[in-house]
Design goal:
By secondary structure, the chain is α+β, with helices and mostly antiparallel strands. Helices cover 15% and strands 31% of the residues. It has a five-stranded mixed β-sheet. The chain starts with a strand and ends in an 11-residue tail after the last helix.
Length: 198
């Protein structure tokens, strides 16, 4: 059984301390796109809470991905404090979720805990952990905030070396830098705009 599945019998007697390093492959639902993360650490405690159970702790790990600017290897550590409440029931119905009933936790409340469900005699922390992993994926991977990227002309990594474009061209034959449409302009020279008429 996965270390993220906790027997409710243990929680009934006392809070259960959790400190698990879980492979992301075990958390990823079938058909879900992957994330550049090998494992995730879940630390905290699971306690009995009214008609359910509450987990308070931390989810952390390190994403590994090529830098979006210079393509060098980049690391992006993350750490998220979490508060999860588990209530007994079946899987969440997303079609009816949000219709709202009196006493429901409004999803717009930023301080509200994330609500999961459990059935039988086991609370599974994996689905909530996967949700935190996905939410923590950065929109842009950078090796460092001030990354200068690659030169679009010569491909030089501007973090490590100077651009070689100017040095490789003679002044009299140098052309303006490629603005993205330069190749089209060369293919259709007759379509170049002329001087504006007054």
């Amino acid at each position: 059984m996965s270390k993220l599945k906790i027997s409710v019998a243990l929680v009934a007697e006392q809070d259960v301390t959790v400190d698990v390093e879980a492979p992301v492959a075990e958390l990823q639902p079938e058909g879900a796109p992957g994330v550049p993360l090998e494992s995730v650490r879940v630390r905290g405690s699971l306690a009995k809470f009214e008609d359910g159970y509450m987990f308070r702790g931390e989810v952390s790990g390190t994403y590994h991905h090529a830098c979006d600017r210079c393509l060098a290897a980049a690391e992006h550590p993350f750490s998220r404090e979490v508060l999860w409440v588990f209530v007994e029931g079946s899987a969440v119905n997303f079609e009816t979720q949000g219709e709202g009933q009196e006493g429901d936790i409004e999803p717009e409340d930023e301080d509200a805990p994330s609500v999961g469900v459990y059935s039988g005699n086991v609370v599974d922390l994996a689905p909530q952990t996967w949700e935190e992993v996905v939410l923590a994926v950065p929109l842009k991977f950078l090796c460092r905030p001030e990354c200068a990227g690659l030169c679009p002309g010569c491909g030089a990594n501007l973090n490590l070396e100077s651009c070689r474009c100017a040095a490789s061209k003679e002044p009299e034959t140098a052309k303006p830098s490629n603005n993205g449409l330069q190749a089209l302009a060369e293919m259709f020279p007759d379509l170049k705009p002329g001087p504006l008429e007054e």
